[in-house]
Write a structure and sequence with these properties.
The protein has 185 residues and is α/β, with parallel strands linked by helices. It has a single domain (3-184), classed as Rossmann fold (3-Layer(aba) Sandwich). It contains eight helices and seven strands. The chain has helices at 16-26, 45-52, 70-77, 88-95, 102-108, 123-127, 129-140, 166-184; strands at residues 3-8, 30-35, 80-86, 115-119, 144-145, 149-152, 158-162. The strands form two sheets. Strands 2-1-3-4-5 form a five-stranded parallel β-sheet, sandwiched between helices. A two-stranded antiparallel ribbon has the order 6-7. The protein is globular. The relative contact order is 0.17. The structure holds flavin mononucleotide. Flavin mononucleotide binds at residues 9-13, 36, 38-39, 87-90, 120-121, 125.
Length: 185
């Protein structure tokens, strides 16, 4: 069974990540969810725990055991990491090499395995040149971006910044999983 990580960050589109998790499970892919602290303000871990049948991770320092450094073992056992939705904040952290929470630390430890980022934010945030520089930098380091899409945003604005369509995210992830499995052969 393929094993992937789903990172969920603190944006309005966090509720859509539940459907993404469900679609992977339906395809017999094991999904471990890492939520940021702020993502838990938008959707509860219980939803993901129930859908994926796995513990949901947020706190790097919770249940630390001497035999397992969890942010490393989570990265090692995963074939791929997907962050959906990805806030401007997590994009900035990853681009800046910051690893101060479970999600950013695990992504940093992915060691060249595919990382897919699905941004979702207000248009003005998305167009911010610092965000755009961060996206370019991450692309140059091999990270894959899916979206954002154009549309009506939760804040009432219309423009680029909506989370890409859920099926598109799942299909892009499955293609990359296939490709990386073929490259490993
Ligand atoms: C109601 C509400 C909606 C938000 N939606 C978004 C969003 O869609 N995208 C985004 O980048 N930030 C959004 N934010 C701001 C983030 O929650 C904030 O930057 C936070 O620090 C992100 O933390 P995280 O990246 O660790 O999850 C929103 C904040 C609030 C209060």
């Amino acid at each position: 069974m393929k094993n992937i990580l789903l990172g969920v960050t603190g944006g309005i589109a966090a509720y859509k990540a539940a459907e993404i998790a469900r679609l992977f499970v339906k395809r017999h892919i094991s999904v471990k969810v890492i939520m940021t602290k702020n993502a838990r303000r938008f959707i509860t871990p219980l939803t993901f725990q129930t859908l994926t049948k796995h513990k949901v991770y947020t706190d790097m320092f919770e249940d630390v055991f001497y035999e397992d450094v969890r942010h490393i073992s989570l990265a090692k056992e995963a074939a791929l990491a997907l962050i959906a939705p990805a806030t401007a904040d997590i994009i900035g952290k990853l681009a800046g090499g910051i690893a101060d929470d479970m999600l950013s630390a695990v992504v940093m430890a992915m060691a060249g395995k595919p990382v897919i980022i699905c941004p979702a934010m207000n248009t003005a945030m998305w167009k911010n040149t610092i965000v755009q520089d961060n996206v370019e930098k991450l692309k140059n380091h091999g990270y894959t971006f899916v979206g954002p899409a154009e549309g009506e945003l939760a804040c009432g604005d219309t423009g680029s910044g909506a989370l890409a369509e859920v099926n598109g995210i799942v299909n892009a992830t499955l293609s990359l999983l296939e490709k990386s499995a073929a490259d490993d052969r």
